[in-house]
Amino acid sequence: MVENTPAVHNVVVCTLCSCYPWSVLGLPPSWYKSSEYRARMVIEPRAVLAEFGLEIADDKEVVVWDSTAETRYMVLPERPAGTERLDEEELVALVTRDSMVGVATVASPLAVP
User: Fold this and answer.
1) pTM higher than 0.85 for the full model?
2) DSSP label at residue 16
3) Which residues have CB under 8 Å from 2's CB, separation 6+?
4) What does the alpha-carbon distance between residue 113 and residue 92 come to, in Å, rounded to a whole number?
5) Which SS3 state, helix, strand or coil, does residue 108 take?
6) Could you count the other beta carbons within 10 Å of the beta carbon of residue 89?
7) Distance CA 27, CA 30 (A)
């Protein structure tokens, strides 16, 4: 598990195949297995993340983790503002598959109408 922080955004890819923690996250999305995603995420992660709608500030480091058959990574999303009083069950409900591979962040409940 790699942790997103105010200074670092982590994203997971498997450049050799499509290693994915399916036992935890369910079946992998088709884009995760695509050769284009796997190659481009390593070369231009900010551009690929922007295509997912995720703009990362220039002063925030983006770290790409390459999963293998022996080591699979997941992202611990950065805790969003407005969640300080939420219990574990309420926090879990905010976390998505995409946030656990790093192509999305967890939305603040303050941003939800």
Assistant:
1) yes
2) S
3) 10, 12, 63, 65, 73, 74, 75, 76
4) 19
5) coil
6) 7
7) 9
| Cα distance between residue 19 and residue 35, in whole Å | 13
Q: Nearest Cα to 105, choosing from 79, 84, 82? A: 79
Domains of the chain with bracketed CATH:
2-101 (3.90.330.10)
- Catalytic residue positions, numbered: 14, 17-19
* CA–CA dist 113, 108 (Å, integer): 11
- Rounded Cα–Cα distance for residues 41 and 62 (Å): 11
List the alpha helices (DSSP H) in 1-113.
22-25, 30-33, 35-43, 45-51, 88-94, 97-101
Q: What is the pLDDT of residues 31-79, one digit of tens each?
A: 998 999 999 999 999 999 999 999 999 999 999 999 988 888 999 999 9
